[in-house]
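haha ok so turns out i had the wrong file open the whole time. this is the CORRECT one, sorry everyone. sequence first:
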Amino acid sequence: MPRTGLALLLLALWLGAASVVATTVAPAAFAVLPTRALAGALVGRVLPQLFVAGMVLGLAAAVLAWTERPAPYALARAVAALGTFAACAVAQWVVGPRIARLREAIGPSVEALAATDPQRVAFGRLHGLSVLAMGIGMVTAVVAIVLALLALRPRT
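then structure:
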């Protein structure tokens, strides 16, 4: 099943990149850069590429699975890969622009605002939604990967 293997590879590549950003790039940026605003700007430049890649690779993996029906788990793999696509699309096209508009309205530092300031609260909510979308994309990629591995098992 070459399509299954290709879809597996595409999703594993994206999941690896997302994992590196979540576990290494973002924490390192906030640990070593002199301000949280700079760290946020750095991570904010990385995430759009990650989300676009998730959309492209998730959609490609879904098409590969869909065209492989009635192979084992093909429909479930397509749905899971579409979950990765959708989560990345929401993060990129819905949450991301709202964060950008809010950052522009706030100015250089979210931390300068009081913890109860409505703009800071809104920023925190949007940040949480972005993290949630990325997490959902990662979980759906894992589901699609596991299903692809199951489909590639030798049948006895």
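The chain has a mean pLDDT of 95.
again sry for the mixup
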